[in-house]
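Onboarding guide, step 5: your first structure request.
Type a short instruction followed by the sequence, for example:

Predict the 3D structure of this protein.
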Amino acid sequence: MIPLILERVILSANSPQLQHVLHTLEATISNSKVSNSKEAAGMIRYMEIPDDDINSDTLARFLPFTSKLSSLVYGYVIQEERYSIDIIDAQALGRLLAPVRHSLTHLKITYYPGTNETSSGGYPYVKGYCCLKDMAALQRLEVCFCVLLGTSPRTAPKLADVLPPNIVQLRIMPDPWERDPSQWKPECKFRVFEKFVSGRNWEQFTPRLKALNFHMDEHRYGWSKEKIAAKETVLIGLCRENDLE
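The system replies with structure tokens like these:
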């Protein structure tokens, strides 16, 4: 018997326990004879699923039962084969988060290849971009660059247009590619943050923001460690000049 009231859920997406939890919640919610079943299911505050298959419906099934979820750590596993590759639909991801948009305060979204081959065959693992503008409760966000802004600077939104309005801490993580198949170059990425931060521009969109962290992992462009360090120093200085940590 799996307990219904679970404050913290940390499961492998491939484990049988995950399916048991899903089935238990679904059965309980649909059973009208169970009193306060929705309140009981809503006790889940923290959920971590670090290795879900990209084609899984885990979030779609789980999140409707977690109306009080405050922290979500979720990781995609990309299965890459010779003639096919999984693609994360970042726009669909944003829609999947709708059931917890009023409760979620911390969100971490990552992805990594399920094999040792990480070149992606010259194609990105992501399509579209994930808009989190309506996540009113979200205060801490950790997300890969291309999940948030897409793989092309030509079609990318402004950073201010996808961020939750009450965010306090923002961490942009590098995408897991040895060879970057996206169209972003280091200087283009830098300009995204420069436009957002300069002149305290960030304040009119995210007035509670205190910390912005962006790791310049650009070894795949042949940058030296010294050049990476210099660019990171510029970013740090830019943030400090505009009252961000």
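Each response can be followed by summary notes, for example: The CA atoms of residues 129 and 150 lie 5 Å apart.
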